[in-house]
Amino acid sequence: MADFAVVKDNVVVNVVVAESEEIAESVTNLSVVPITDNVPGMNWTLESDGWRPAQPFSSWLWDGTKWEPPVSHPATPGSWSWDENTISWINLSPDIDLEELPDTSLSE
């Protein structure tokens, strides 16, 4: 048994396991590519130099090995998420001033 990427217009639409390339193609009715090294995922593309993961956001650029955001990831602590609308990083857990929180301790 072997793994095959089912591709349509060089984009992975499925990954199947079959005894041969011919069987995989006959079951899917699409072209298949044997998977040898890294396993591609849905929407990956087959490039001349190998598999490329799906582009996470339209503003991100391929550097030859991975997708990079147009703005560097912040170095400050936090739970950061990319916001494509503003082309910026949003801190989902901004610093909280512990002095401003109400006292919820159980004191007797």
Q: What's a quick, concise take on this entry?
A:
With 108 residues, this protein is mainly beta.
Keywords:
7% helix; mainly beta; 108 residues; 9 strands; two-stranded antiparallel sheet; elongated; three-stranded antiparallel beta sheet; 1 helix; single chain
Give the helices and strands as they follow along the chain.
Answer: EEHEEEEEEE
Write out the strand line-up for the largest beta sheet, numbering strands in chain order: 2-1-3
Number of strands: 9
Q: Kindly state the mean pLDDT as a whole number? A: 85
Give the amount of beta strand, in percent.
25-35%
User: Please, how many helices?
Assistant: 1
Question: Gyration radius, to the nearest Å?
Answer: 22 Å
Percentage of residues assigned to helices:
under 10%
- Overall body shape: elongated
Give the N-to-C terminal Cα separation. 68 Å
Main β-sheet, in a few words? 3 strands, antiparallel
Q: Structural class of the secondary structure composition?
A: mainly beta
Low-confidence stretches: none
Q: How does this structure look, described?
A:
The protein is mostly beta strands. Helices cover 7% and strands 34% of the residues. It is built from 1 helix and 9 strands. The strands form 4 sheets. It has a 3-stranded antiparallel sheet, covered by helices on one side. A two-stranded antiparallel sheet has the order 4-5. A two-stranded antiparallel sheet has the order 6-7. Strand 8 and strand 9 form a beta hairpin. The longest helix is centred in the N-terminal third of the chain and has 8 residues, at 21-28. The protein is elongated, with a radius of gyration of 22 Å. It starts with a strand and ends in a 17-residue tail after the last strand. The relative contact order is 0.13. The mean pLDDT is 85.
